[in-house]
């Protein structure tokens, strides 16, 4: 027998011994489990077997498919997902006859006016619906007040006639329960010395008595309504369920009174009106690709990375570097009262008045200028826009 055959026989022998030991261990485990079940002894299961996160019936492809469709995911947008500078925030095309709001969001004039008119129509419709709902609530409140007043008058008439307004069984139950507590109250009252109290009847006392009567009448009506059997006949007009029957308090939703900018976020909304729209005057340069919008100072194409800024008075747009170089005075230079105001680089129109304070320290808050909103560039340090989607997690 050669050395290779000896090694092969040795491996086969070790494998047979391992299989024999595994079979013996499984048989011993089965016997132990049967014995524990016969003796009604609880079997302690490991924590991992109780988890519902690793099911053998799913494949890796099915797990990945479920994760992509059912779990919360987020992704960072790359350059191809960003709109070019000067795109409309509504139609997503290059803005035609561009206008801007006070915060620098760019729109087509037609898109902006159409959106403002649509929002105004929606506001009017919401106000009309709210007025109808308030009228219905007032009618319901008046009806409930009439019922409470009628019930209070009925209880007063029954009391004057010498009849008990409550049921006899309920009265007997209330009179017989807790006799020791009633005796304690009588003893406590007997210990208090009798004092003469002056009778005073003013408007506050009358309001308090009327409020107590209404509260008692409302409680009696609610008890009678709760005692009636509730039939599931929702098709019957008298038993149609109503949203007002809920015990939850009404949700007070703040109505929108003015149109809001469609490009603003839900956390930080700002209004937009036709009067506040600013016409943008872009400087266009002829290129092999056609007319493109450029900075009138350096003649570079305006992109998302150039941080363009617009003058509020005239609407001319320059890149941020040219604004800091030609339009904003140095930060170290003291600002005197007789200094001329800031003017536009193109048309020399004053951006601010002399009385207005010039904040030169922060580059984004230059008076008279608006930073036009632009999307990212694709670099990680600038324009890190991410999209998120939250959904129900499906474990498999």
From TrEMBL:
Residues 217-227 have a biased composition (Basic and acidic residues). It comes from Fusarium longipes. Its main location: nucleus. This is Nitric oxide synthase-interacting. Belongs to the NOSIP family. Residues 295-348 form the RING-type domain. It is found in: Nucleus. Gene3D superfamilies: Zinc/RING finger domain, C3HC4 (zinc finger) (3.30.40.10). Residues 126-153 form a coiled coil. Residues 156-185, 217-269 are annotated as: Disordered. Keywords: Coiled coil, Metal-binding, Nucleus, Zinc, Zinc-finger.
